[in-house]
Each structure stands twice: as structure tokens, then as C-alpha cells.
Amino acid sequence: MAMDAIALPAPRPHTSPRGRTWVALRTFLWIDRNAWRPRHASVAVDGQTVSITGRPTHVVWDMGEATLTCQGPGVPHRDVCSYSYRRAASHQVSVTVYYSVTWTCAGACDTPGGTFGPLPATTALRLVIGEIQTSTR
């Protein structure tokens, strides 16, 4: 019940450039910083109170041609978490935040607490990758 009560929100991803990028151009990646915080929930039933906390640990970006792991939410327009595409294409990019989850139980409990996870929260976006060619004429 405590797991059902905790809300691990799907990340809200951002790229710069937004929606379209170019082959060999560094594309900056980040999620909303206010989502990068612990989530808590508690449930009380029959003399037991279970409290659960999920803490974000890392973000995995599946860029369509490669996967990238970032240790934090990224920073808008900064090279903290970025990727450069190798080919022109259109990709469904998935973004997953992984949460480390701990729980405690107070009252008439069989176990005082523990950990489990990592638990994922995923969302996706479409990103078009173009290619710029120059002429030497």
C-alpha cells in the first residue's frame, strides 16, 4: 500500500536545441530540476505505519542510437549531460529517472525496514536529427 501511495513522477525532459538537432552537434539534455527531490509517503493499517522514501539516483537517456547515463538532472544549456548524434534520423527518445527506495515500519511489524529498487519512472519525446552539408564550390 505504501508503494501505491508514493508518487514517483515521470521526468519532464528538455533538449537544446529543442525538438530538432543536427548530426555532430552537441545536444544538451536535462529534466526539470524541481522533480529531482526525494518523494515520501506513509500508510497506517492495523497498528503498523509504513513510511517510504524514493530518492532519485540517476537518469538514463535512450537516444535511439545509444544510451547515456547522467548522475543528476542535468543543467539547461550546459554540457553536464549531452549527446552528439552520428546519423540523421527521427528518434523516440526515452528518459528514465531511477529512484532508490527505503522504507521503515513502526508498530507491530515483522521487519523494521529495508530497501528495494531501483524503481524507474519513464517518459518519452520525439527528436528529429538533421544533417547539414556544405559545398566547396
What is the compact description of this entry?
The chain has one helix at residues 2-5, and strands at residues 13-16, 20-22, 26-31, 39-45, 48-62, 67-70, 82-84, 89-107, 113-130.
Secondary-structure map with pairings?
Elements (H helix, E strand, L loop, with lengths): L1 H4 L7 E4 L3 E3 L3 E6 L7 E7 L2 E15 L4 E4 L11 E3 L4 E19 L5 E18 L7
Parallel strand pairs: 2-9
Antiparallel strand pairs: 1-3, 3-7, 4-5, 5-6, 5-8, 8-9
If you had to describe this structure to a student in words, what would you say it looks like?
The protein has 137 residues and is mainly β. It has one domain (2-130): Immunoglobulins (Immunoglobulin-like, Sandwich), CATH 2.60.40.10. It is 3% helix and 58% strand. The protein has one helix at residues 2-5, and strands at residues 13-16, 20-22, 26-31, 39-45, 48-62, 67-70, 82-84, 89-107, 113-130. Strands 2, 4, 5, 6, 8 and 9 form a six-stranded mixed sheet that branches. Strands 1-3-7 form a three-stranded antiparallel sheet, with no helix packed on it. The chain is rod-shaped. The model has no long low-confidence stretch (mean pLDDT 93).
What descriptors fit this protein?
3-stranded antiparallel sheet, 137 residues, 6-stranded mixed sheet, mainly beta, Immunoglobulin-like, 9 strands, rod-shaped
In the CATH scheme, what's the topology name? Immunoglobulin-like
Q: Could you give me the name of the CATH homologous superfamily? A: Immunoglobulins
Q: How helical, in percent, are the residues? A: under 10%
Distance linking N and C termini: 69 Å
Beta-strand segment tally: 9
Characterize the largest beta sheet: strand count, sense, and whether it forms a barrel.
6 strands, mixed
Question: pLDDT average, as an integer?
Answer: 93
Order of helices and strands: HEEEEEEEEE
What gyration radius follows from the Cα positions, in whole Å?
20 Å
The helix tally amounts to: 1
Structural class: mainly beta
Beta fraction of the residues?
Answer: over 45%
How many distinct domains? 1
Name of the level-1 CATH class: Mainly Beta
Poorly predicted sequence stretches spanning 5 or more consecutive residues = none
